[in-house]
Amino acid sequence: MSSNDTSATDRGAQPSAAPRVTSRDVARAAGVSQAAVSLVLGEKWRGRVSPAKAESVRAAALELGYRPNLAARSLRMGRTRTALLVVPALTTEFFALVHSGASRAAADRGFGVVLYPSPEGIGPAPDPFGSARATLDGVIASSMAVDALAALRGTGLPLVMLDNDPQDDRAAATVNLDIADGIRQVADHLLALGHRRIGHLAADIDSWTFALRARTLDRAIGGIPGAELRRVPAALGVTAGLNAAHTALTGPGPRPTALVCDDDIVAAGACKAVRRLGLRVPEDVSVTGFDDLALAVAVEPELTTVRLPAEDFGAAGMRALMTALDGRPAPARTLPVELVTRGSTGPAPA
Amino acid sequence: MSSNDTSATDRGAQPSAAPRVTSRDVARAAGVSQAAVSLVLGEKWRGRVSPAKAESVRAAALELGYRPNLAARSLRMGRTRTALLVVPALTTEFFALVHSGASRAAADRGFGVVLYPSPEGIGPAPDPFGSARATLDGVIASSMAVDALAALRGTGLPLVMLDNDPQDDRAAATVNLDIADGIRQVADHLLALGHRRIGHLAADIDSWTFALRARTLDRAIGGIPGAELRRVPAALGVTAGLNAAHTALTGPGPRPTALVCDDDIVAAGACKAVRRLGLRVPEDVSVTGFDDLALAVAVEPELTTVRLPAEDFGAAGMRALMTALDGRPAPARTLPVELVTRGSTGPAPA
DNA sequence: GACCGGACATGATACGTATAACGTGAGGCG
DNA sequence: CGCCTCACGTTATACGTATCATGTCCGGTC
What we know:
Chain A is an alpha/beta fold. The first copy, chain A, contains 13 helices and twelve strands. Helices cover 39% and strands 16% of the residues of chain A.
C-alpha cells in the first residue's frame, strides 16, 4: 500500500544560503549609485539618468536576477498596491472566479490581490490581516464573510463591499449584483408556467444578499391573487437542501409545485428529495437554482438558474477600490444578471 | 428592513488619514523605550523588562490598537513566517480544503499561508511572487500547477511538492496521496463485480499524478486474462467528460461496461453520456469518479469514488515545509486514500 | 571593600528601498 | 561676463522593527 521505495535523500538540508541580490549589488555591477538603479527600474529617469547608463542598469539587473525586496518597498512607500479579498469558504467556484476577475482588473494598474477564505470551521477567523501576511492598501469583502470583518475595525483601510446594503457605512464603496432582478425573473418564469404554490428554500445565513432574495420573492409572489409562498430555511449543502425540500413538500396543506432555491447546491439536493418522494422533476415539481455553477449542468435534469457575472463582479469591486484609493468617490454599481432556462422547470401540473 | 435613516455622508472622500500607530507610540504611552516594547510583545523579556512595565506596555498596546508593521518586521528579520500555496484554478473545493489544512498546520507555529490560484485563462501565470505581494519563506505547489513554477527558478525558496515524482530534484520535500492505491481499489472493485471491458477517461493534463493513474490502471487491468482497457483523453469538465464517454462507448469493438474517470466532474459528464445513449447507470454501464467532491453525492446515482484526505494533505505539506525551513530533512510521506462505494457501480451485465 | 553576576533599561544600528536634497558642468541668453 | 536652466549623478535620509552592545543599580560572596 505505502510505497516506501525512495531512499531517504536529505536534500533541502543546506541552510538555504540565499544571497539576496539587492539594488546596491546592481548598482555596483552597473557602475552607478543605488539611487540611479531605483530611478531606472522605477521608470522615473526621464532627465535624471543618461540613456546609456539606464540601459546598463537594466542589463545588470537582468544578469544578476535582481528582485526588489517587497518588504523594503512597502516600508518605504507606505503602500503596497495590494488588496485583500475576503470571501466565505471556497466551497464553490463562484468566488474563485470573483478572485480571477479582481486579479485581472488589478494587474492593469500594477496591483495585486491576496485571497483570504474565511475558514469554514468552528470559531471566527483568526486574523485575516496577520494571515494574509501582506501590508494592505485596502479590502474587498463579500457580505457573506461578515464575521471576518470584525478584525478590520481599527485598521483605517478602505473597504469595498460586495453584495451588501449600499447604506452600510463601513464601506467606502459597494458593488452589487442585481439579485432582486434575478429573483423577479425566476418568479415571473414560474408564474408564467402556471405555478401558484411555491416553496422557497432560503439560505439560513444572516446576510444582506439572502435577506434581499426573501424580501423580493415575497413581493413578487404576494402581488399575485391565489399565489402563496412557503419558506423553509436550508443550510448550504446537498443534504441540507434535500432535507429542507422534504420538509417543504410534505408539510401541511397542498404540496408546492415549484421550489425556488437560493443556491445551485441546495437545488441539487431538492431534486433528489423530489425523486425520493416518487415524484418527477419537472413534471410534478419544478426546481430553480442560483449562481449557475458547473454543478447546474452536471445534474439531471439540468438546472434552471440565475447566471451571475462572477468575473465582472470581482473586477468591478477591484476597480471601485482603486478609485477610492485615488481619493475619488466610487459610484455604486449594480451588475445585471440573467435567467438561464433549462430542464428543471416546466408547466405546473393540472 | 432597509434603514434609510442615515443621511448620505460622503464616505471614502477623506484622504485616508490613517495615523499608523507604531511601536514608538506605544513606548511613549507606556513610558518605556521602543526596544522594551519590542521585547515585551515578542515575549522575550524573561529577565530584561520588569513585570510591571511589561504589563503597562501590553496595556498601552491594547489601548492604542497597536498592530506591528509586517513590512518592517519582514525587512528586519529576513523571514516572514509565510508560505505560498500554488494551486491550479480553484474550480472545485479540493484545493480549498488543502489550503484550509495548510493554514491550520501553519497557525500552530505562527506561520501564515497565502493562496495563489494559477489563472485558468490563457497564458502562463503572471508573477506569483509579485502577485502574492508578500515576502515568502517557502512555497508549496501542486504538481498540477507546474506552469507557475518557472517563476520560482532563481528564487532560492524551499519548495514542497504535492503529488509529484519523489525523484524530482526541484523539491526539498514531497508529500503524496496514495493515488496508485486508490486506482488499484477502483480496479479491484470493478473486476470483482465482473467487469472486463473497462474504459478510462484520462485527464489530458501533463502531470505526474495523472500519468501515475494511467500507469497503475494499465498494470491492474493488464494482469487479468480476458480484460481490456480502452483509454480516451478528457479535459476536466462536465461537457468534456460527456464527449469523452460518448467516444468510449460508441467506438469500434464491444462496448465497455465500466468507465473509470480521473475526476468526479468528468464522471458526472460520463453519467449523462450513458443516459443519452439510452443506457442506465449502473445496470448497463458502471462509472467511477475520483476526489469525492460535494458533486459526487449531488448527482444521481451518487458516485462511487475515491475519497482523498484533502485537509490532511495540505497540513502534511505545510509541516514538511516547516521542517525543511528548520534545516532538517523532511521525510517523504504518502497519505492513504479510501474507496467509497455508492450507486454508480454495480455488477457487470451478462 | 572589591568583585561579580543578574535584573533592568536604553541607545544605536541595520534590514533594502524610494526620493528629497544637493552638486556638478555645459550651454543659452541677456 | 554673470546667471539661469537643463541634463545628469550622488549623498543622505527615513520608513518601523528586532536585537546587539552598553550601562546602571543592587544584593551577595570571598
